[in-house]
Amino acid sequence: MTDRKAAVRRDTETDERLSVTSRHVHDYSGITMDSGAGVSIHNHQFSGSTDIPIMVGDGKHVHRYNNNTTVDRNHIHVMEGTTGVNIDISGGGHIHVAKGSTSAKMDHTHDYELSTSIVIKPKRKKY
Length: 127
What we know:
The chain is mainly beta. Helix content is 12%, strand content 35%.
């Protein structure tokens, strides 16, 4: 078997072992908190999608995120970080939460908090 065929076979076997929910992303959106004292008070909107999951053990995972805010007062900020672990919700799905501070622009930052969209676990078919 060629190296390429072996790699494809390994990928296929791995994909079959992974559940649909293990290859998922979440959407998120929100508004930053007001800028600090000494700065013209304003905030920015943000939205994005997380990267695929990073397994952290015990069936838990986190996601990386990275996005720009909207423009306000002629500038934007960068938001990036890692969500907290998955939080199960009733109905079989889960969400993630994260908080942090944006990059500094024009001598200020903004704090933010976000929660992701819900990912619902698919029901297993009975054969």
